[in-house]
Amino acid sequence: MATSNDLLIKQRSVIEFLAAEGCSAANIHARMKTVYGEMCISDCAVRKWVRIFQGEDLRETILRDRKLSGQPSYSVSQSLAIAKLQNMDNVQIPIVELEVDPTGSYSNLVSLVRFDRSFRTAGGVNLPKIITCIGSDGFKRTTLVKGRDDLRQDAVMQQVFSLVNQLLTTDQDARQRQLSIRTYKVIPLSQKSGLLQWCDGTMPLGDYLAGRGDAHSRYNPHDWKVIDCRKKIQGAGSLQEERLKAYQEICAHFHPVFRHFFLERFVEPDHWFERRLTYTRSVATNSIVGYILGLGDRHVNNILIDVETAELVHIDFGIAFEQGRILPTPETVPFRLTRDIVDGMGIPGVEGVFRRCCEKMVQVMKNNSEALLTIVQVLLHDPLSHWSLSPDEALALQRKREQAAMDTVDMTLSGQVPSSGMVTQSGQAGHGDTGVAPNENKEKRNKVAERTLLRVRQKLSGEEDGVPLSVSGQVNLLIQKATDPKNLCRLFHGWQAYL
């Protein structure tokens, strides 16, 4: 017979699960009352635990103080559980990579000493928290704590990227070209929460191109403003001809400037050349891997750039396996290769280094297709994984993206600067709100997974639109699709295809 303590633990687990699903305290208490009867904990206790699991206490403290995200820091209340943690000598810092120790001693374990006494918040509705961990080695490590968002798919994508990096090291030409994908740690804690490694020294492309004091305004002051371009494409209607005309008009009055990023930061010629080369290779590797996995939502705030190395860091992988194609405003390009992205590559543009690196990436992935298909197949058939969008979810997601995009514009116009190094943005396309409906049967889900797996297999074999292509032919077709104005003009206005 279960003790009262065991019963309490079980009820707390139920509350945590339902709270992660977004259920209200009243709804949770009513459902638990039917199960536990007189043994159910009180309504007051349920509300307390829901507030803890959903982070409402901390959230309301921030909102009550009327402090906006992006301000320096907030003190951690001593009444919070995180401030009372003790005896963490054997607790590893989650974002630190733990190498396998053959001896089993793990004497070099970097343990958690304490958390910093203050924290910051990243932008967005859910106010993800930026905290600093002090390790036993004396170093500080920044972590993003995120709630109300499912990070399991992001974690799997990082595993795929790590596998791709391993495959690239086995190819001599890829090693010589130093091809790799920048990864970061993602640790899901539950269905609706998790930790992400903070990408120090990075900034979203959107901050440089469209943020406060953006490069477009500085270098082309007589061009249209970013907000004017957005309004133009947003009001163009839905007809292909109208949108294409609006996009071409924007391009005539809004010119790319991303080459200045390298001129500003890398003044020595050899340094400038090396960083531009690194950037071009990084664009190529991320583009091809993103295409194979069908990654969508590649707007300028979901792509970070390291200000020291010029490597790109892609974040927020809620839309994968070409689910962007079923959004109300479908995504029509295989990856982001807009004018500003190409402008950063210098005079050669997509020719030369970029094209050759893309071809090498396609060749390596084709040669190791079975290894890639294995890990993708596990994700697609995982009953706990939510990667597929229903029509209603697609509509809700696009509306959320639109609202988040407008919030970003409002922050910029009001003089607020979004936090750099952010590993995901609340309110953007995160797959915490996506997934196959729970009542869908297993057979239907498997059919969707098989179709998706078939499409990945076709990409790896070089089959496009039913036609088998060579490696160079496939890369050429992808570049054409990614840069075609007829495709770019049809994208969601928040994607900002003119940047």
From TrEMBL:
Annotated GO biological process: DNA repair
Coiled-coil blocks: none
Molecular function in Gene Ontology: ATP binding; protein serine/threonine kinase activity
Keyword check for Kinase: yes
E.C. number(s) listed in UniProt: 2.7.11.1
CDD domains: PIKKc_ATM
Keyword annotations: ATP-binding, DNA damage, Kinase, Nucleotide-binding, Nucleus, Transferase
Domain PI3K/PI4K catalytic: 115-427
InterPro entries xref list: ATM_plant, FATC_dom, Kinase-like_dom_sf, PI3/4_kinase_cat_dom, PI3/4_kinase_cat_sf, PI3/4_kinase_CS, PIKKc_ATM
Residue numbers spanned by region Disordered: 415-447
Domain FATC per the UniProt entry, residue ranges: 467-499
Compositionally biased residues, Polar residues: 415-428
Protein name: non-specific serine/threonine protein kinase
Species whose genome carries this gene: Plakobranchus ocellatus
